[in-house]
Design a protein that fits this description.
This protein folds into 2 domains: about 110 residues, Alpha-Beta Plaits; about 100 residues, Alpha-Beta Plaits (2-Layer Sandwich), CATH 3.30.70.100. The chain is about 25% helix and about 30% strand. It has 4 helices and 8 strands; from the N terminus they run E-H-E-E-H-E-E-H-E-E-H-E. An 8-stranded antiparallel β-barrel has the order 1-3-2-8-5-7-6-4. The longest helix is centred in the middle third of the chain and has 19 residues. The radius of gyration is 18 Å and the shape is globular.
Length: about 240
């Protein structure tokens, strides 16, 4: 029987590592991708709200859920910070707040709403991130995945650090976060925050600065998703 061990989310205002007043960027996050039965999305969101409440009770620093708008139908992408893999040896803080009986009941109910759930552990790359500008509240996020070619990991990281990130900064883009799959070192994820749909009418920031994507010499493209943050199901930094 499928179970959902951790179904939580990454704040779209992930703090900068250099801000003394902000908590540090977590070294690891667990990403869950849930394919929800089309006729049970409301029930699913209600259960995520319950999980949000349990995380709030447990003191979780952030909890943000995303709904996929382009890339898959009836799909939700969520992440939760963990300090180390040892955290996964025990029930999550939310499940501890629910208690054993409450957790079992919640799992039974949410399993009825989903077709599948995939989990990936990601390592955050804070030195390759561009923090979100203060006061900005994006409504959308673009989650893209690439795989570096065999033997090209170092070159791909260098491309991100020396070409991609500077080009995005030059184009005025902020709110960009980078992750590496902790178990498959060739898979890389970028979460880029976007204000609204009208933002997509602007030129591609990399192309506008003359820096194209890392092509076949370094990596291959995977899936790209446009997502909407669900603040009503989330714990945002201002709510702490």
């Amino acid at each position: 029987m499928r179970t959902i061990a951790l179904l939580v989310a990454l704040s779209f205002t992930l703090p900068a590592t250099t801000a003394a007043q902000d908590p540090p960027v977590p070294p690891l996050v667990t990403m869950a991708t849930a394919q929800v039965k089309p006729d049970m999305t409301l029930e699913f969101e209600g259960l995520i709200r319950e999980l949000r409440d349990a995380n709030q009770e447990a003191g979780t620093s952030f909890f943000v859920a995303y709904e996929v708008l382009r890339g898959a139908a009836s799909q939700y992408v969520t992440l939760v910070p963990i300090s180390s893999f040892a955290d996964l040896d025990a029930p999550s803080p939310a499940f501890q707040a629910m208690g054993e009986a409450g957790t079992a009941q919640w799992l039974a109910r949410i399993n009825k709403t989903t077709v599948s759930v995939q989990f990936d552990n990601l390592r955050t790359l804070g030195d390759l991130a561009i923090p979100l500008a203060e006061g900005r509240q994006p409504e959308l996020a673009v989650l893209s995945m690439r795989r570096n070619l065999p033997g090209m990991r170092g070159e791909y990281v260098t491309w991100i650090r020396d070409q991609q990130v500077p080009a995005l900064r030059e184009a005025g883009v902020n709110g960009v976060f980078q992750f590496q799959n902790a178990h498959s070192g060739r898979s890389w994820y970028q979460l880029r925050l976007v204000d609204n749909w009208a933002s997509f009418d602007e030129p591609n920031p990399l192309q506008a600065t003359g820096v194209g994507p890392a092509g076949g010499r370094l990596s291959t493209a995977g899936e790209t998703k446009v997502m909407r943050v669900l603040p009503e199901l989330s714990i945002l930094p201002a709510q702490r």
